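U., I forgot to send this yesterday:
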Amino acid sequence: MAPGVLITPGLFREFSRANLVVFVEAINPFDSTIRNVFLHSVEDKQDATTVAARGKLEDMPNGDRFIVLEHGRRYQGIPGTPDYRVVEFESLGRRIEANEVRALPTSTKAIPTATLVVAPGRVERAELFWRISVPVSALVLTLLAVPLAYVNPRMGRSFNLVAAAFLYMLYSNCLNIVQSLIAQGRLELWAGLLLPHVIALLIVVLLFRHQLSVSGLFARTSQRAAADPAPSSA
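Result:
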């Protein structure tokens, strides 16, 4: 990847790990030279602003990425205070991205599942919860479709469609809420996996039981039990 891909001309780009904000007016994609550069950072609890007419983006042999400024000026501190400094320089380099940061995926969605399993971070656990929940919810929804496919002539077909849409939205929103709670550290992964899916499975069981009772299976069983004469006592 070319160094210039990191920065878009005319837009501010924040590098949070380097505690740095970079603005570049123009980039030459052929030699990675840049023009009219602005850097801002906070160092030793003081604002530091660096400006330069030109510079260059460079990749070091160890993989670190630097922005090297030429013939610029650096302002540090609060104007009007004794510790305010203005320094002119011929060349100044600033690391904007470390090699270990570059090796990390840009999004948790790009992290392999095997890595998520051993990752201790809350965001990683939330992503792992979602990846496990997708196939589980697909199975639960498939089971849920079976009792909802039964049409009661008294209620009509539209009632089941509305009920199915409501249960799906409720289930999906619950999964999103649980994922958010895990990412915030307010809920453990194992609890998050059990809570919504077990409740959904209980609803499926209740719907199956209701369908069997309406179809007469349970009713026939109870009628047979009532029809059998009770043993007479001597």
